[in-house]
Structure formats: structure tokens, C-alpha cells
UniProtKB/TrEMBL annotation:
Annotated TM spans: 17-37, 57-83, 104-129, 166-189, 196-216, 236-254
Protein's UniProt keywords contain Hydrolase: no
Name this protein carries in UniProt: ABC-2 family transporter protein
Source organism, top-level taxon: Bacteria
Coiled coil: none
Upper classification of the organism: Bacteria, Pseudomonadati, Bacteroidota, Sphingobacteriia, Sphingobacteriales
Keyword terms of this UniProt record: Membrane, Transmembrane, Transmembrane helix
């Protein structure tokens, strides 16, 4: 465990900018997304509830939670991990007293730390939006319900007023990062330039092939399949198998480079 800790300290010591770049990029892209994809919420943050009638207040309760923020949770970590392929081209990196397995484990731990750090900021911002909207509009919306005679009406669980709850649900999707991470490692290994775009292209191309094959196999027969395990495995089995093979292949690449 000590070699892994030392290696992590070495990497983070030369990439201290991540402490500031991760929240800064998350904040900037969050603001852009808020403006373009949640324009209604953007307007609510600028306006006062005193200017709205009861119908307008009730309509606010139907504004959906900010589901586009899941893309920030899943995609942004890959942007911050672009520095890892650069380590492959530093000869001294392969002379360090650390085994291939420990080095691979270090990359996975780095991915986990960056992913959680980024996700916590997205959660914080979604919670802040929810808290601000509740502070500004909640009592007025409840009052509008009462004045309209909607005494037992509840705000939808898919509303922006439950924004933080759905962000926590996004955390269950973090496994996708570790499914696709080895593809990015391989792209960074074999394509020094534009590795992220190339790995994304490979993933999209593979997904298109998988969907095409699936449609051909299941066409006209899907209603006959009743085994839930088979259905679940068919959805994730091939990708999981490819991911495991990529991790194993990358381990042996690191093994060959050991001095």
C-alpha cells in the first residue's frame, strides 16, 4: 500500500492545479448549462415571486429537476484525467519502485478521487439551486395552492424542488466512468493527440455496433425472453467483459514496461 500512496503523492504534487480547476470548470459549465438548458430556473433566480400571479406560481412547481447535470457528473472527470496518458511518455515513470498492479490501482484511485470531488461540487450547486428556490418561492407556491383550492396537492417528486435528491441518484451512475476509463487509457497509450476524442469515438462506434446487433438478434423475439438475468446480462455483459479485458491488457502493458 505504501508504494501506491507514494505514487499518488508524486502525481498530485505535480498536478496541484486540480484542486482549483475541478471546481472552477464545474462552476463555469454549470452556469452555461443553467442558462441554456434551464432557462426557466435562470429567470426565477433573477425575478421576485411578488411579480407572479397564482397560476404562474403553480406552474413553477412543475419545472423539472436539472437532469442535464448528470452529464457533468459523468463527463467532466474524463477531462480532468487527460494528464494520465502523459505519464506513459515519461520514461522515469516506469523506473519508479512500484509494480504494474499497484500503478494500475493508483490510476483507478485517482479516477475515484477526481470523480467524487467533481460530483460533490455538482451536488453542492444543485442543492444550492434547490435551497434558493425554496427560500424564494416555496411559501408563495403553497399559498397559491391554497387560494386555488388545491389543498392536498403535493409538488411533484420530479420537480426542481427535489433537485438534490436526484443528484444523489446520479451517484449510482458513477460506475459508468470506471467502465469507460480503460478505453481512455488505451486511447491515451496509442494516440498521443486527441486521445479523449478518439476514445469517445471508439465508445460511440462500439455502442452503435452493439445496438445494431442487438436489434437484429432481438427483432421479433424480445417478447419471448422471460429470464431477467439474461436480459440484464445482455445489456451490460459485453461492455463489462470488454472493460475487464481492457484493464487486463493495460496491466500487461505496464508489466512489460517495468524495469
Amino acid at each position: 500500500m505504501k508504494p501506491i500512496i507514494n505514487y499518488l503523492n508524486c502525481i498530485f504534487a505535480s498536478h496541484k492545479y486540480l484542486i482549483f480547476s475541478i471546481p472552477l470548470i464545474a462552476l463555469v459549465l454549470y452556469g452555461i448549462g443553467l442558462f441554456f438548458f434551464s432557462g426557466e430556473i435562470w429567470d426565477l433566480l433573477k425575478n421576485s415571486p411578488a411579480k407572479l400571479d397564482d397560476n404562474a406560481l403553480i406552474s413553477i412547481s412543475n419545472i423539472s429537476f436539472m437532469n442535464w447535470t448528470v452529464s457533468l457528473v459523468i463527463i467532466l472527470p474524463f477531462l480532468h484525467l487527460l494528464f494520465i496518458p502523459n505519464l506513459f511518455y515519461k520514461t522515469y515513470d516506469f523506473t519508479l519502485p512500484i509494480s504494474a498492479g499497484q500503478k494500475l490501482a493508483s490510476y483507478i484511485i485517482i479516477t475515484l478521487i477526481i470523480t467524487l470531488y467533481n460530483s460533490l461540487f455538482i451536488l453542492l450547486m444543485n442543492f444550492s439551486i434547490e435551497a434558493i428556490l425554496k427560500m424564494l418561492y416555496w411559501n408563495d407556491i403553497m399559498g397559491a395552492f391554497d387560494r386555488k383550492g388545491l389543498l392536498y396537492t403535493e409538488i411533484s417528486k420530479y420537480s426542481v424542488f427535489h433537485n438534490s435528491k436526484w443528484t444523489l441518484v446520479f451517484f449510482t451512475k458513477l460506475y459508468l466512468i470506471f467502465l469507460f476509463f480503460p478505453f481512455c487509457l488505451f486511447a491515451g497509450l496509442y494516440f498521443r493527440k486527441y486521445s479523449l476524442l478518439i476514445s469517445a469515438a471508439f465508445i460511440v462506434f462500439g455502442a452503435i455496433i452493439g445496438v445494431t446487433i442487438r436489434s437484429l438478434i432481438w427483432n421479433g423475439y424480445s417478447e419471448r425472453i422471460t429470464n431477467q438475468f439474461y436480459i440484464d446480462f445482455y445489456d451490460w455483459g459485453p461492455l463489462l467483459l470488454a472493460t475487464i479485458l481492457c484493464y487486463i491488457g493495460f496491466y500487461y502493458f505496464l508489466k512489460e514496461k517495468e524495469v
